[in-house]
């Protein structure tokens, strides 16, 4: 972090350290990022492992600021959650992701499903269901082509999670539990919810073939999904060995660098537009 101005003057009070200044500056820039069109989406393919068929994409938000360069969502999403700005970002992401599905449709690439991440703050705030309905109505996207991803902690710690999940289910959109295995889901609670997908967290996939504990956890999640009639997808699949392991244990779907990095919509169209997707 910068501690001095260009001429060596200290331009802030002593008790505000460089990091604090940096953060305030970043927060201020983030608040204007949507209107300045610095926020955009990349899309990462989700595939059926054995056929390589495209089954969906996950929308991942990106921020490019002229001064800061590319800022990772790992940095700016928590910041946006603290300031409440996540609600505007989240709304923009939802609408843009739905619009993109229609653009691909028109360009001849039918992506079966769009997965969109929701922040805990969006769910806590309530009124997600009407927002989702508006996004679908505005774009004329079929509800079954949209899937919302929330982490386990959102489900477990939000007072109104039950209502939230049932409202989304009633609209007809899918729900995936993200980073599954890293939180503390009560299985009894989960069982009551109309959830569609468990996403095995990348941390358990990473050391497949290296760490037998992680292998055991991955297998347990696959089994759990089976017995609860949920579809299971593994995230962070980077090599064939991991893919083969998953397939061997009954997980047929995956997302990860092995199949494709998050890319701009035009790149996804180029890569999946013709032969690959029939
Ligand atoms: P996530 O939802 O768990 O998303 C998966 C992250 O793993 C993405 O990082 C993706 O680029 C990365 N990834 C995918 N495949 C691989 C792989 O094979 N290897 C490795 N090493 N990484 C892989 P990204 O795009 O940096 O996003 C980080 C996190 O930021 C997301 O984690 C999610 O929690 C949050 N995020 C991203 N977009 C949004 C959004 O639109 N809304 C909200 N609320 N959060 C978002
Ligand atoms: Ca996700
Ligand atoms: Ca995830
Ligand atoms: Ca993860």
From TrEMBL:
Q: What residues of the intact protein does this structure contain? A: 769 to 1046 of 1057
Q: Tell me what this protein is called.
A: EAL domain-containing protein
Q: What's the source species for this entry? A: Massilia litorea
| Taxonomic superkingdom | Bacteria
Chain ranges of the EAL domain: 23-276
């Amino acid at each position: 972090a910068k501690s001095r101005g260009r001429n060596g003057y200290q331009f802030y009070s002593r008790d505000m350290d460089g990091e604090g200044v940096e953060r305030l500056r970043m927060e201020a820039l983030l608040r204007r990022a949507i209107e300045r069109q610095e926020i955009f989406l990349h899309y990462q393919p989700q595939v059926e492992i054995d056929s390589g068929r495209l089954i969906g994409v996950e929308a991942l938000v990106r921020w490019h600021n002229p001064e800061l360069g590319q800022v990772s969502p790992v940095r700016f999403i928590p910041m946006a959650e603290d300031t409440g700005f996540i609600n505007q970002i989240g709304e923009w992401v939802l609408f843009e992701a739905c619009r993109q599905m229609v653009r691909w449709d028109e360009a001849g690439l039918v992506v079966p499903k769009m997965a969109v991440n929701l922040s805990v703050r969006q769910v806590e705030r309530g009124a997600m269901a009407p927002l989702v309905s508006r996004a679908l109505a505005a774009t004329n996207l079929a509800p079954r082509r949209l899937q919302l991803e929330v982490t386990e902690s959102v489900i477990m710690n939000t007072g109104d999670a039950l209502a939230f999940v049932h409202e989304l289910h009633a609209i007809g959109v899918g729900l995936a539990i993200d980073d599954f295995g890293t939180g503390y889901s009560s299985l009894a609670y989960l069982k009551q919810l109309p959830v569609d997908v468990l996403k095995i967290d990348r941390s358990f996939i990473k050391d497949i073939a290296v760490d037998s504990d992680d292998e055991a956890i991955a297998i347990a999640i696959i089994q759990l999904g089976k017995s609860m009639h949920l579809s299971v997808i593994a995230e962070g699949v980077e090599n064939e060995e991991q893919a083969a392991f998953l397939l061997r244990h009954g997980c047929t779907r995956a997302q990860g660098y092995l199949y494709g990095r998050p890319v701009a919509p035009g790149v996804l169209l180029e890569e999946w537009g013709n032969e690959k997707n029939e």
